């Protein structure tokens, strides 16, 4: 069955430090991959997505993610974290192509130390 | 503005009292879906619809119903809500690979 794993439930980083949030998926075909961010009390905002082509994807707010097929991973990175990045981050996989559904990981909560 | 509109944003109800959460999209999308979000569990799909009159169960359909009588609307119905349905609910629509989410409905069942 298709699944998405975010191994880290909670991560704390210092402001200005680099960030990497991990995401692994289980799916037989090439998936569509997404990262969403949810600030406290807010809805979901799309950070970036990968469908095909260049495996390094640039998103909003200075985030990027790299698709590694051999590792079934789609890790999210940011070189320098800002206090406003504190939020919960969800990795999601679109399965079944244009007829399929979106499967979410359980999320990683990011805290930022001043 | 292209959007998915959910109503209400917040709802407190009592066990067993039927309720409907509405979802409407103005993008002429064929695909719509409902998710619930619970702490530590991420978002789990309740029901989805590929088109008018075509609906199917997601991962957690128990206790919920949906209908898709017209393309723009996809209401979520709780016939007899229970406290374990207290959650944050999101509606989404999609064309191709682009998903649009509503702002969420926070439901509390007491």
List its salient traits.
heterodimer, A: 114 residues, mainly beta, six-stranded mixed sheet, four-stranded antiparallel sheet, 12 strands, 0% helix, globular, B: 110 residues, seven-stranded mixed sheet, 11 strands
Can you put this structure into words, describing what you see?
The complex is a heterodimer of chains A (114) and B (110). With 114 residues, chain A is mostly beta strands. In chain A, 0% of the residues lie in helices and 53% in strands. Chain A has no helices and 12 strands. In chain A, the strands form 3 sheets. In chain A, strands 2, 5, 6, 10, 11 and 12 form a 6-stranded mixed beta sheet that branches. Chain A has a 4-stranded antiparallel beta sheet with strand order 3-9-8-7, with no helix packed on it. A two-stranded antiparallel sheet of chain A has the order 1-4. The relative contact order of chain A is 0.33. With 110 residues, chain B is mainly beta. Chain B is 0% helix and 55% strand. Chain B has strands spanning 4-7, 10-13, 19-25, 31-38, 42-51, 54-57, 65-66, 76-78, 87-95, 98-101, 105-109. Chain B is globular. The model of chain B has no long low-confidence stretch (mean pLDDT 95).
């Amino acid at each position: 069955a298709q699944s998405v794993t975010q191994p880290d439930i909670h991560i704390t980083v210092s402001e200005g430090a680099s960030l990497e949030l991990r995401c692994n998926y289980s799916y037989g075909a090439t998936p569509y991959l997404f990262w969403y961010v949810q600030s406290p009390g807010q809805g979901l905002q799309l950070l970036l997505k990968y469908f095909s082509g260049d495996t390094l994807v640039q998103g909003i707010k200075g985030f990027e993610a790299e698709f590694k097929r051999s590792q079934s991973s789609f890790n999210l990175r940011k070189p320098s974290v800002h206090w406003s990045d504190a939020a919960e981050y969800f990795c999601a996989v679109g399965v079944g192509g244009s007829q399929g559904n979106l499967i979410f990981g359980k999320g990683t909560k990011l805290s930022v130390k001043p | 503005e292209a959007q998915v509109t959910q109503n209400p944003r917040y709802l407190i109800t009592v066990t067993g009292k039927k309720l409907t959460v509405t979802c409407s999209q103005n993008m002429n999308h064929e695909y719509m879906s409902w998710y619930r979000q619970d702490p530590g569990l991420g978002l789990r799909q309740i029901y989805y619809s590929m088109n008018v009159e075509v609906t199917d169960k997601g991962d957690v359909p128990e206790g919920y119903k949906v209908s898709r009588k017209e393309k723009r609307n996809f209401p979520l119905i709780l016939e007899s809500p229970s406290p374990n349905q207290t959650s944050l609910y999101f509606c989404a629509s999609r064309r191709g690979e682009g998903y649009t989410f509503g702002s969420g409905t926070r439901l509390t069942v007491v």
